[in-house]
Amino acid sequence: MTLALFVVQVPALIGHAFEVGDGLGRLDAAGRGRFVTAVLSLVQLLPLFFLLAAVLALLFPAVRCRAIERRHGLLPPEHPLVAPVPGPPPAPTGPPTEPDVRPAPSGSPTEPDVRPAPSGTPAPHFHQQMQAFLDEHAPGARLRISTRSGLSARVYPGGRWATRVGVFAPLVHLWDTDVAAARAVLLHELGHLRRGEQHVAGLGSPFTALVRVWPYVLVVFVVVPVALLLVLGNATATLTLAEVILVLFSVPKVLLLVVAALWSAELDADRWAVHTAGPDALVRALRRLEQGDQGGPARLHHPPARLRIWCATREESGAVQLLSALLWPSALLAQLLLAVLGAVPAYVLLGASRERATREALALAHHALTADPAWWVTLAVVLLWPLVRRVRVASGGRIAVTSARVHAAAVLFPATVLLVGLLPLVSRPSGGVFADDANERRPAPTGTPSGSSGGAGGTPTACPSPSAPAAPPRPRGLPSFTDGPSPGSTVPLPADAPRTFHAVAVTSLEPLSGTRAQQAANFGDRMRQAHWTLHDDGRLTADVPEIPALRSTGVRGATRWLTGRRTDRTDVGTTATWVEARLVVARDGTPVRLDLVRTASQSLRAVVDCQEFTTTSSTAVRLSLTLGQE
What we know:
Elements: H1 2-27, H2 32-59, H3 61-72, H4 126-137, E1 141-145, E2 153-157, E3 163-167, H5 169-177, H6 179-194, H7 206-232, H8 237-277, H9 279-293, H10 305-312, H11 319-349, H12 354-371, H13 373-394, H14 404-422, E4 499-511, H15 517-528, E5 531-534, E6 540-542, E7 551-556, E8 559-569, E9 573-584, E10 592-608, E11 611-629
Parallel strand pairs: 1-3
Antiparallel strand pairs: 2-3, 4-5, 4-11, 5-6, 7-8, 8-9, 9-10, 10-11
């Protein structure tokens, strides 16, 4: 179900990545904003690959088994590295003793000391005792031994119909010192086996791997690229930061569901161990193995030991059943709250007021209650659960008995949430989301979708079409070259002859409105590599995409004034680029000087629920170049 729900979101994630990446690329000619956006989209899609790996693990359990045993050093009991070393026949006299089994250090063979039993014959080795215990409670499960530390015991598939239980050094030591607690650990693993969970969870599960590696993925693929982007002062830093916030808050959408499912499985396995061996033995085992087996933030695939101990001591109260039944819908509700918390700062970064951003996020969350298929699927599953239970029992399977109160709570939780989503409690506020300048923002339509009545006198009003906005005007207050003829002149003045120049040095560089110092420096670096051509019709062109073709508007002596403009459109945005330039080409051998001001303004437009939202951003830079004639 988790895989299906996530696959439904994949087309929207890919489309969003292309849309945002293309918009950011218009602002950032170097492609850094687009690159970071692509990385963020990959992070959002990464859980899909783990879920697909989980499906492949189901189809090829033997391959998973070999990989697990090779990675963790799990060996059969008869392997020379872990098999007991036979010693001389012991004397028949002496006080009764128990087997003294101490694991060797990690990576070295285990050489147990087998002491005599009261009858004078050696007591069974711990391998044999553990295998006998498995045969009693789970016939067919085979034992595998590892001398490594860090884990206690894990269950994993040995094939399509076979199961293996891996035992590590800490459990061997616990078996030697507190056999009842060690048996409780094995009973916990066999609780997973009773549900067939070794094929989905257990050792080597892609689900647990997803939880373990996710903190490192966030650092490498999100924190580091975005930090570099902010340090470089990229033009898209603010927009990209808003995207980062949305990604960081959307990541738990997948992790919360996976963690909730794994925690439910662990708590249910604890319940079976408590029911079979009693709570005291399991509590002692959890306290002994807590430090080595449950530490670290990456071990979220197991509940905290304190929570497990609390549940183990209250197994009779029914609270544990209720907790397990509500973990999944609670995770769905938590991910919705995280989405709201992420949307508010993202809206604020993009220019919305704090009050407007909060109202907008709450309205979207209210709509998501009924739009998200997970809530409807969850309600359907819990409603059909009694029927599933009867089918399982009739087919010979074993399934936990859930009380009527727990089942009613599991039904009421998603039903109540869906009822809240269906009630008209929250609506999206009217008007635009962002407080743009009045002459650059179109008023939000007041009508209803085409075909319905609205407006004065019930006249139908059509929704605005989702097209790119008009080209934004040139920002006011920017410097221009006014010493020569009017820049608005459209008469091209011929050049003496076609001439080609290359940049020798950047003599001055000044960031203007909306541009950081590092952004201006990057623009200067690109201009330093440019080649310029003065054509015989008076046009000046450069081999860099930031500069449109410039046409001459006037000539006075060795000075030439030029201007150029280019408009680029996408489905959701329009970017206008203006360049004003002054070229001084003296005939006395003086170096050629080129002064220019480049301005880029972008307007983004979206239509949501028949409401139109627009936002505009601008960057500008001024620089002077020394050119050499080729």
